[in-house]
Amino acid sequence: MIDTHCHLNDGVYDSDRKQVVDDAILAGIEYIIVPATKPDDFDKTIAIAEEYERIYCAIGVHPHDASAVNDAVLCRIEELAKHPKVVAIGEIGLDYHYNFSPHDVQKKVLAEQIAIANKLNLPIIVHNRESENDMMDVLHANITSSTEGVFHCFSGDLEFLRKCLDINFRISFTANITFMKNNMDLIIENTPMDRIMLETDSPYMAPKPNRGKRNVPQAVSAVAEKISIIKKNSLNEVIQMTTSNAKKLFKLPLLMLLFLVGSTAHSQTSPSSAPNADSLYYDDDEYFEEDYDPYNRVLGIGLLLGTNTIVERYSTAPNNVSQDGILSYGGLVNYRFAEAFMLQTSFMYGKNTKVDSTVDPTIYTSIDLSVLGIIKPRNAINFYGAVGMAYYINKYGMMDSTGLRYYETHQQFGINASLGIFFNFSLKTAGTLVINGEWKLNFPFGKMHRSVDSRYSKSDERHYNPVDFGIFSSVPRGGIIWYMPFFNKN
Question: Is 216 exposed, middle or buried (0-12, 13-18, 19+ CB in 10 A)?
């Protein structure tokens, strides 16, 4: 078997890369193709390919880092692509999911790297994410009749598959085809066996039972097994055909001989050491995982700060009395019980000092339990809506006829609704940090009763009449939440 796309240049392999390679060879992996993804990867990728006989590599810049590409980088790609162990230009392409680089820059850099591949007669390894139309436009404008390539970690629909096959490109599948939420059966059924290749995209997308853990090259066998089931071919037939497809595209047997002859000469211009790579530099392919979240959030605790506007509603004029800008603070606990849903309990406390100086400040306290529904929960930014139940405890400062101050306490149940946004920042082994902004509306049930009518001054006899009134509040609030790593669901 050949793992045609494996990021062994990732920093997560720095401590045991040799053992990973040895284990893969013992498991029957014949070759491993390691693609570069950014300019800082180039030297390290070449060094790894030089060190291990069974490893070949590709040189290119991923669309996430397209903005970093200039003429010097392009010259560097062309220079390194002449190395006898470089078998392709890649990983290159378009990614409109994260948009880390502008679309026009991504398209320009893709075209420039295709030109290098055409000049050197090398295939291209293509990354496509939500960019199908522009991808085909760029390819049709820049490839020639002799340009070959592979769409790695294929995730397009049937129409896009046919367009890829029409330009004679290969289709590579990862363990995402084994995930229940990513049914690729129809795509695989319609992909001819002589166009299929296997990959792991390690360290990402490990198949069960190692989901969410670091992937390894020998896990490509799970991809082969799934394809054999869907295509109704024997596992041996799938392995033989996909291995042959990879060897033809990357010309691996021929390059084995060239490396033995040419590596000594090229070593004079290739650095023998490499800088450390950034660990987990991009997480786009992790998005396909059925139960992997790059921003792992299970149990989180946080602090809240907001301003509360309380509106008291009376049946007699003046009908509405608003208490604005009441500084409120508190805390929350979030529990993510499903992919796109969280359970949240929060506590808010506010003190209204803008009252008659002869009475104590009014104190507003709320405890709520809400369910949050999150849009695109694995993205770095999430929008959400929430509804829930709440318990309100309001304490109103009063003064009796003798001048004694006291509180009247009102307790009520109610409902709340809110809209908000999460900004997620992975702290890796330390968990996840989330910045939260939210607008919440609170609606206590029924009426409140007060022994005096605070709408009127104490010199007005109406002040001493008992009064019933309804209440609702509007609370724009922000928070910072830490999701603890001890409850990692991955």
Answer: buried
Inform me whether the pLDDT recorded for 486 exceeds 90: no
Separation CA 200–CA 229 (nearest Å): 18
Q: Report the pLDDT value the prediction gives residue 489, as an integer from 0 to 100.
A: 55
CA-to-CA distance for 434 and 455, rounded, in angstroms?
A: 42
What are the pLDDT digits (tens) for 405-415?
Answer: 888 888 889 99
| Dist. CA 161–CA 164, nearest whole Å | 5
Token pair of 430 as six digits: 């330390």
- Per cent of the chain over pLDDT 70 is 89
Q: What is the distance of C-alpha 296 from the center of its chain?
A: 9
Residue 450, classed as helix, strand or coil, is: strand
Residue ranges in 387-434 assigned as alpha helix (H): none
**Sequence-ordered strand ranges (E) for 152-293:** 170-173, 196-198
How many C-beta neighbours within 10 Å does residue 303 have?
14
Scan for tokens 């997480």, then name that residue: 283
Q: Is the pLDDT of residue 262 over 80?
A: no
